[in-house]
Amino acid sequence: MLRLASAAPLLRRAVPMMASRGLSTLGYNNASETTLENLADQLDGLAERLPTMKQLDASRRAESLLDADYSSGVLTLDIKAAPFGGKSGTFVINKQPPNQQIWLSSPLSGPRRYNLDTTRREWVPCPTTAEGVPPGENIESLLSRELTDMLSIGPVPGTGRILIEPADLEDVDL
């Protein structure tokens, strides 16, 4: 399975002191910004490693199967793998400063809210929105699992040719 690296080591530097009573506004801003920038960098790296649409089908433009854009606290991840037997959809991951959360909207599992676990220094599912999320599954784990599912491109209709098998994404650390 594709694995996105945890932002925990970066969060140790970005938010060196976390009080048990919660985060300061500055601490939240540093932690959420660090996490979203880390995810954006990893997803850009993944996009560069995937074949382009033109490489998969000569009649198409040389677009990426995955586009990640991070701007103003919102990370948008557009996946266009459906024409090739995978899945298409858009993830939106954004900061929610009033509740000090990161919100994720997934085309597979729907909306999720994440709180920063100040002990583990990772974003974990908010208990009220964690239905269907394995216990303790942080934001990077959920994205890794769902991206592997969406980008596992099976036989191309009419050709029987396998483009990207789940094994091709196995243990891809970004």
Automatic annotation (TrEMBL):
Entry GO terms, CC: mitochondrion
Coiled-coil ranges (or none): 29-56
Protein name as annotated: Ferroxidase
UniProt keyword Transport, yes or no: yes
Entry-linked PANTHER family: FRATAXIN, FRATAXIN, MITOCHONDRIAL
Molecular function per GO: 2 iron, 2 sulfur cluster binding; ferric iron binding; ferrous iron binding; ferroxidase activity; iron chaperone activity
GO biological process: intracellular iron ion homeostasis; iron ion transport; iron-sulfur cluster assembly
Recorded superkingdom: Eukaryota
Keyword set, alphabetical order: Coiled coil, Ion transport, Iron, Iron transport, Transport
Family under the similarity heading: Belongs to the frataxin family.
Record flagged with keyword Ion transport: yes
